[in-house]
UniProtKB/TrEMBL annotation:
Domain of life, per lineage: Archaea
Name of the protein described by the UniProt record: CcmD family protein
Assigned keywords, A-Z: Membrane, Transmembrane, Transmembrane helix
InterPro entries: Put_ccm (IPR030888)
Species name: Methanolobus vulcani
Length: 38
């Protein structure tokens, strides 16, 4: 209920979204690399 808990929740959500973005961008990069190799 406190402001600290709200800030923690926002930080956690931001981190999860950031990780999801990194994973999706990595998959795109891997596809590009595999195309170049072939």
């Amino acid at each position: 209920m406190g402001a600290l808990e709200i800030a923690f929740a926002i930080t956690w959500i931001t981190l999860m979204l950031y990780l999801a973005y990194i994973i999706s961008s990595r998959r795109k990069l891997m596809r590009q690399f595999s195309r170049i190799e072939k």
